[in-house]
Amino acid sequence: MALIALSRRLRRTPFSEGVEAAGVKGYTVYNRMLLPTVFRTVQEDYRHLKEAVQLWDVACERQVELRGPDATRLMQMLTPRDLRNMQVGQCYYVPIVDETGGMLNDPVAVKLAEDRWWISIADSDLLLWVKGIAYGYRLDVLVDEPDVSPLGVQGPKADDVMADVFGDAVRDIRFFRFAMLEFQGRKLAVARSGYSKQGGFEIYVEGSDIGMPLWNALMEAGKKHDIHAGCPNLIERIEGGLLSYGNDMTDDNTPHECGLGKFCNTHSAIGCVGRDALLRVAKEGPVRQIRAVEIHGDAVPPCDRLWPIMVGDKQVGNISSAAYSPDFATNVSIGMVRMTHWDEGSEVDVITPAGVRAATVRETFWI
Amino acid sequence: MALIALSRRLRRTPFSEGVEAAGVKGYTVYNRMLLPTVFRTVQEDYRHLKEAVQLWDVACERQVELRGPDATRLMQMLTPRDLRNMQVGQCYYVPIVDETGGMLNDPVAVKLAEDRWWISIADSDLLLWVKGIAYGYRLDVLVDEPDVSPLGVQGPKADDVMADVFGDAVRDIRFFRFAMLEFQGRKLAVARSGYSKQGGFEIYVEGSDIGMPLWNALMEAGKKHDIHAGCPNLIERIEGGLLSYGNDMTDDNTPHECGLGKFCNTHSAIGCVGRDALLRVAKEGPVRQIRAVEIHGDAVPPCDRLWPIMVGDKQVGNISSAAYSPDFATNVSIGMVRMTHWDEGSEVDVITPAGVRAATVRETFWI
Fold this sequence. Notes:
Chain A is an alpha+beta fold. Chain A is about 20% helix and about 35% strand. Chain A is globular and about 65 Å long.
């Protein structure tokens, strides 16, 4: 890891004080905001996430709010996923594409009301795209970034901790649904969702002023469950096949290449930007696609750039995320692989900074 | 400084190898790309920048390219600065605002041809705004991020180093103009510009493959002028009043608040987004504005969040960037100050993490 120079531009969050007090050891920058990456070690954090419960400062999942008569029309313009049956209280994972079908973001859309949405974004200024479209189409909608900062409670004991603070109603929240629950007199959207496969919640904390009071209340309630400050864990998210925008995909990629074709209802999502391009892709299929790739041998170094996937002298893809998994006793990784070699069991080579490594393409992630 | 976890998402540049070989000690993240912040110490880098010449990896100034019949129309839609008299070969500093007059970026526009522009951006995904507007207005223009990475040569000896590599033609390039000059058979735009007040150039390196060859050629030519790898210097840029988007201004601010009213030709920049809002602002004037503020006493700590500017119990502004200046033997800073206290010589207090400090509002920066 290198050193990072702090400035106002790399925004602090409503939970930064708590994160610092918990002894954060490293950050990344996400949506020009600080996102912790490690508290004890990545391996200790990983083990603890799978066994107990963690509090995650994911305020960097900024919200784009759409309000007004054209909010739902605009939301449907933004994504090829058909939103017509989506209910208030639901969250949808939605690919967002440009006119060529290139991925601009892979956020979660939160339907607050018929005329009010939040888009909980990955790492790109989606706000600017949404504002540009709304302006260009003269839509009757307000688009801005509200003072809303997600706080994650992740891990097998998340329900117990959350029930202590928000009441047993949290136990009834279904996956990718949210309920409006009270904390200190404020109603907050509490969703069963999060960037891990260990289960848990994301609280959309509206109002920075209650950030630390809520952080402290959850820390207190979690004591008996061994709660600890945590963060999205590199190893766990690769094992689970959770993609990272900017790492595993960029605007060069279509949703189909990212394995997100199932979220593209290109025939019924009428009016969405990029539909023509995606109809073509849906018909012909992609020629490369995201795959789980097992890299054999010792633990690989951090993956800070694309690692070529080779078969002989021919490049057939790239690895974009990789880490050594203690549970699977191998290097787990995510790569984009050409169709000639994307079948289960394909044997390939990966050029890592630690030398060329044998690797095997898998059908599924480590779940 | 904290530690940063590297990943593909925080993009390396065509010059990263050179930066690492030169012993970079810290980074920030800018447009999701690594930007060095210190090589020896910020103070040593500062002294050297003012006395010699430095090579800067400013690849993070990504380009938004506009190509096609509507390129110039679109460029004028993006900024309130009147572009009608701008010639091919010129660079203009252009505020970019949204429909409410809020700053989205403060880039440099580079006019390559009547139908081809680069926008050399500050830290926000301006590409998404430009694509959204182009799509919404169905303009006949291609908008994308080309493989172009600026490389800065800054400092009093920049002309000599550049002349060695590009020939004496560089000496004739006027401020904020560029010439197309050859390196290894490739024509590159070489502009007299840069994010310091010490003079110098920015080379728009088109094609990542020639990044390191050019870096090495400039390092070799600069040996006799004591060239060293460098980067935008916090102290020097505050002294010179060079604003930083995301630090000293955000989309909350109008250009007039940022002291950029002189770049807004709101009556003649017909068709620009935000014109109605800015006409109002131009007429009434802003109620707060960017000011140089001298903070008395010992060196202040790093400014990683807004510091309130107080007069008694009343807040009259915020400091957004601050550093101790060896040359002026005081803390130089940039703040946004309400009109009640923005006059030269206003005595105020600044709440810093090191305690409350007396401070004085200045009319001009330290130049």
